[in-house]
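Reminder: ligand-aware prediction takes two inputs, not one.
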Amino acid sequence: MLILGIESSCDETGLALYSEDLGLIAHLVNSQIDLFTEYGGVIPEIAARDHSAKIIGILKQLLKQTDHNLEDINLIAYTAGPGLIGSLMIGETVAKTIANVLNIELLPINHLEGHILAPGLEEDGLEPPYLCLLVSGGHTQIIRCDGYGEYKIIGETIDDACGEAFDKVGKLLKLEYPGGPKVSKLAENGDSKRFKFPRAMMKDKNLNFSFSGLKTSVLYALEDLNEEDHADVAASFQEAVIDALTTKLMWAVQDTKIHKLVCSGGVASNKLLRERLKQMAANNNLEVSYPRMEFCTDNAAMIAYAGFIRKKFKLPIYPTNFARPRWPLGELYD
Ligand code: KG4
Ligand code: ZN
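Here is what comes back for the chain with KG4:
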């Protein structure tokens, strides 16, 4: 079985080849991030156009470098949602066209399932059960993975994603998009105790997150401050975000009694978050792992792998015919 994986849910165009016998053969990702620096965020129409302009070229490159022909592929796993509709439709159209021409099976994959299973791409890959803290520009979720195909979101943001909050605060601090890495760099020289920014929904062991009030507090704080205070603001903001993430993840551990943790998504590269999770794991006898960064951020390797797992364990295949901008994880088989 040779699976072609296709990812185009947001601003990364990803193609991958995954073999039943050899595992991941190769994957390529084109990030559109440079296109959006001047806008300070993803513009959906530009994202879709860029997927359309690049996807075939990347596919050709992938086949060439792996010495494969299109005809070698016998299964296509593509991201059918959730994501930006224009972006999703480019990957979907390519997937449907190839599948129809080659007369092979098509597996629509939920993007979140890709992220949840991504740790399995590593050689000593983690096996369920585990808790996944998925933190990126589009997601902030604690997902309970009890087994392959058995996922439950037990906590998630009710407004901004945590990477999005970093990016918005980056904008307030006049840092270039995406602000996340720049805010955390600036925070290294700041006093994280100077400002006590709010941690939302900390009562009753609620596992959900909210970051929009935090962003507003930063906005108000900045009204009376100068540029030399920015490092303290960045550090205090980062502290508030990481405090919320780690506190709630620990509550999730206590609730579920699951002691294996995975942290994934673009924000998983945040140094302080990693440090705090390491401490938390050491103090509570937990195991925490991170898929390597290229599998943490959006990529097609995880989509091909999710397709492989669905076939291997004979899990139901979602019968969608259309890309789904909204596709709750709980509706995998509806
Ligand atoms: O998973 P990802 O590459 O892409 C999508 O969300 O599509 O995540 C990108 C997000 C951005 O919001 C970026 O600012 C944030 O992850 N990010 C960080 C760090 N590195 C990336 N946020 C905080 N600290 C970092 N070191
Ligand atoms: Zn993603």
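The first strand starts at residue 2 and ends at 7. The radius of gyration is 20 Å. We will return to this case in the review session.
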